[in-house]
Amino acid sequence: MQTDRLRLAIDIGGTFTDTVLMRGDDELVATTKTLTTPENPALGALSGARRLWEKTSIRPEQISGFIHGTTLATNALIERRGAKVATITTAGFRDILEIAYERRYAQYDIDLQKPDLLVPRSRSFTVTERLGPNGEVLIPLNEGEVESLLSALEPCNAKAVAICLLHSYANPAHEQRLRDLLLAARPDLTISISSEISPEAREFDRLCTTVANAYIQPLMQSYLSDFQQAFTKAGLRCPVLMMTAGGGMCTLETAKSLPVRLVESGPAGGAILAAKVAQEIGANEVLSLDIGGTTAKLCLIDQGAPQMSRQFEIARAARFIKGSGMPVRIPVIEMIEIGAGGGSIAAVDHLGRLCVGPQSAGSVPGPVAFGQGGTEPTVTDSDLMLGYLRAETFAEGFVSLDAKATAAALAAKIGAPLDLDAIGAADGISRIVDESMASAARMHAVESGKDLGERVMIAFGGNGPLHATRVARSCGVRRIVVPPDPGVGSAVGFLFAPISFEIVRSHFTTLQQLDFQPINDRLAEMTKEAIEVVKKGAGDAAITTSLSAFMRYAGQGHEIEIALPNHRMGENDLAPLQAVFEREYSRQFSRPVPGMEIEILNWAVRGTTTVHRAFAEGRPLRSKGHNPKERCEIICDLSGKPTSAGLIWRADLQPGDYLSGPALVVEDQTTTLVSADFDMQVDQRFNLVLSQREEGAAG
Length: 699
What we know:
The protein is of the alpha/beta class. 31% of the residues lie in helices and 27% in strands. It has six domains: 6-77 and 221-262, ATPase, nucleotide binding domain (Nucleotidyltransferase, domain 5), CATH 3.30.420.40; 82-219, 3-Layer(aba) Sandwich (Rossmann fold); 267-340 and 432-494, 2-Layer Sandwich (Nucleotidyltransferase, domain 5); 344-431, no CATH class; 500-609, Dna Ligase, domain 1 (2-Layer Sandwich), CATH 3.30.1490; 624-692, no CATH class. The chain contains 16 helices and 36 strands. The strands form nine sheets. Strands 13, 14, 15, 20, 23, 24, 29, 32, 35 and 36 form a ten-stranded mixed β-sheet that branches. Strands 3-2-1-4-11-12 form a six-stranded mixed β-sheet.
């Protein structure tokens, strides 16, 4: 364990860019928040890094590790700012995107809006070839059609191509050859092939993932090159590692070829931090609440591990409705994300209803309070009006807040149409956005077959601690933990992530007919490939591998991931595999199905470095009441009336200190609201632990 190494983490969000400097394994040296610069995100990142270097007198060449996460890939897909993409599929399968799942996501909605899958039929092309499900060549690739494909690509002005040939997951030869032929004639094209991006059965999902990768690849390649060049010019000598959606890190080279894996990379860091805190405090069931300037992210964490998934949807046409977005199949920490952050815009719709989000003011022009040209009131404006934000401490004092402009905008844009004053408008915005987050959390838990009532909430992000008690109350959660430096929580989480890479391959078989020799050989080949990718960023660090299979009962449409032994499997493993599957199936669906044949569709290998998880002992806990020296007036979130609240600097608190709400605990990058019905105590690791009182409070 190196105790003197310095590592930098930068998380670029939609509103703020968070920067963290850490020494050794867990000593935070300095943190900061800067406004994101959307026209060139590297500028905001450099600004934050330079601020820390100046504050600590550390030179950039002393940094030995650099981890970066960004919302750029996600935003490019949501805002449709990627390259113009064409698709090439097997002859007869031109309309894969149009047909999709052959169903409507809202059966009786006559105004249903179909997901925008980025490629219209006019840019969908085909080539003559055919592979069987086992990879056998049924019809050879017609290379003579390449010239006509090139001619068709010219007038449509496509800059990127997504190739997805039938059953290419079993045999990539045709896709690889077609790519080589196209690049030989058009080296300026960016080409993604499904056998590398998502080599799994289900051609619609595979094509969508490949399209998404091709769509953002030119943008991300340019951005990552410019980002690396900017920091190298600034004096940084260590390589840049990128955070992935699956909770691991990869090299810049891997990120440039598989940029779709960077989607949701920032929120993944937050889930890693929450998992670490959960392990430290011994909480087995956790709900993480990460509220930033643009969105709120919620994740279920059990036994110290975030819930994982193999699929999620981008840019849903209908919020919360599955099937209304673009499906992407990559390893991802499963969470629900809604447009409910500090910059979420509030408005009164044509029916006279108060609505909040999902549109965001972002960092430019930002909330009205920022004084940068924003005219639409936001959640941040409402928090300022309610007294929850202190203008003199917001964002370390680098962003000034204009309370008068905020009050005027709230009164004019929200209050006037609803016959409310500025405070009433702010209170309405706050209640709606908090209930939106709580509703999303309840829905996410129900979809996962889990209960929120006994869970501990871990709150972070610039707005998480500010809204945690209100969201928890609505969710039925009674205990909240706010870790140190919560305002830059996702960036802190980056520094606890392993370097990892997951490979998934499709090979259909039934459990009883499993031919172990080819499966063992394939898993060995995948293991070697995963280790080689991880080694590029891990150097000589120890690498572990885990194997899994995706199994289901015959006739079912979806699979359950089951861990495999790390040895070459044989007949003696059949009964244990069946037992593990039936046990996991029973856990999720209450009972197994006797006598049903078990199928295996996909096989996975994950290579990862070992992360140090030895937690230092916390400070001794001696309970002592803390009497706030200052007080301020806020609007009570229970009664909606003005009330006096304690005002405490978090830096003045020590383990064991406790107080009762209402109170504001202020720090450089965020504020924790201790509501009138909550008590707060500082634990041994300087976490703020908020507990709802049984009897409640009137405020």
